[in-house]
Amino acid sequence: MSGAVVEIEGAALAFGERTLWSGLDLDVRPGEFLAVLGPNGSGKTTLLRVLLGLQSLSAGKVRIAGRPPGKGNRRLGYVPQQRAMDQQLTLRGADLVGLGLDGDRWGIGLRGLRGRRRRIAEAVAAVGAERYASSPVGRLSGGEQQRLRVAQALIGEPDVLLCDEPLASLDLTHQRIVTELIDGRRREAGTAVLFVTHEINPVLPYVDRVLYLVGGRFRIGTPDEVMNSATLSELYGTRVEVVRVGGQIHVAGAQSALCEDEVHHHLEHTDEPVP
Ligand SMILES: Nc1ncnc2c1ncn2[C@@H]1O[C@H](COP(=O)(O)OP(=O)(O)OP(=O)(O)O)[C@@H](O)[C@H]1O
After folding, report:
1. Mind listing the pLDDT tens digit for each residue in 208-251?
2. The ligand 1 atom nearest the CA atom of 43
3. What is the value of ipTM here, to two decimals?
4. Which of 15, 27, 175, 272 lies 20 to 30 Å from 190, alpha-carbon distance?
């Protein structure tokens, strides 16, 4: 036993002729914060789907807390990519958060019910969502819905938290609230965090290691080891300039190396920070 809570060994994933990544070996320790970066279509979400047991590997194996993914693995929390919820959805915010407790043994009776209510209230308060916790989620803004999803993922006290661009629709204040919440959880409870993001800067102070995927290749290391001109130039196969300004990382020049149209489209603004 390596002590890692996520163990990925010799993993490969291909769809038809296209290999997203192969030869991926990665152990994630309890409490570690791993940022998963890479351009559109590089396989970031697919990696999370493998860990969730929703996608099988083409080769290799994956273990979460020593067990295969899927199989009722309650050790996982998941914050999906932001998608607007159906406006007609009448489920209340607090009930959405409470779904994260499903499968917990609350027992029957008032004590179980009170305990459940208290935990939901605490989770709602932790993301600052008290004001709208009783409203139907379909009527809430994208950012409000996203804070409830984070509360839902954390309430089950997971050993591993999988986040798919959880900051995408949040303003700067709520980006900070959510990242500090996730950071607090991993520090206090040793939850390992795999955080897919296009933008490393909002989480840079927390990141222990980066997994950077590009066109079937990848690098794993500390932000300093991966987010530098030499490493990213090698990964993209062209000259890429990485500059640190005021504690932030800016990447320029990667777009010319990317051959997929959608990637060009995504990166067409030269001053946009490249993932
Ligand atoms: N079940 C599938 N069958 C075939 N191709 C798939 C399947 N699932 C994903 N893909 C393809 O694999 C590629 C990687 O998708 P994925 O969603 O993992 O990328 P990503 O890195 O998360 O991208 P983005 O930054 O755009 O969210 C995409 O080209 C996608 O179309």
Report:
1. 999 999 988 999 999 999 999 999 999 999 899 999 998 899 98
2. 18
3. 0.96
4. 175
Task: Provide the 8-state DSSP code for 140.
Answer: S
Quick: pLDDT tens for 185-201.
899 999 999 999 988 99
Judged by DSSP in three states, 173 sits in helix
Question: Which atom of ligand 1 is closest in space to residue 260's alpha carbon?
Answer: 29
Question: Is the Cβ atom of 38 under 6 angstroms away from ligand 1?
Answer: yes
Q: Where are the domains of the chain?
A: 84-157
117 three-state secondary structure: helix
- Residue 45 Cβ inside 6 Å of ligand 1? The answer reads yes
Residue 202 DSSP SS3: helix
CA neighbor of 254 nearest in space, from 44, 43, 39, 19 = 39
Three-state DSSP state, 158: coil
Strand partners, 211: 36, 220
CB count within 10 Å of CB 81 equals 16
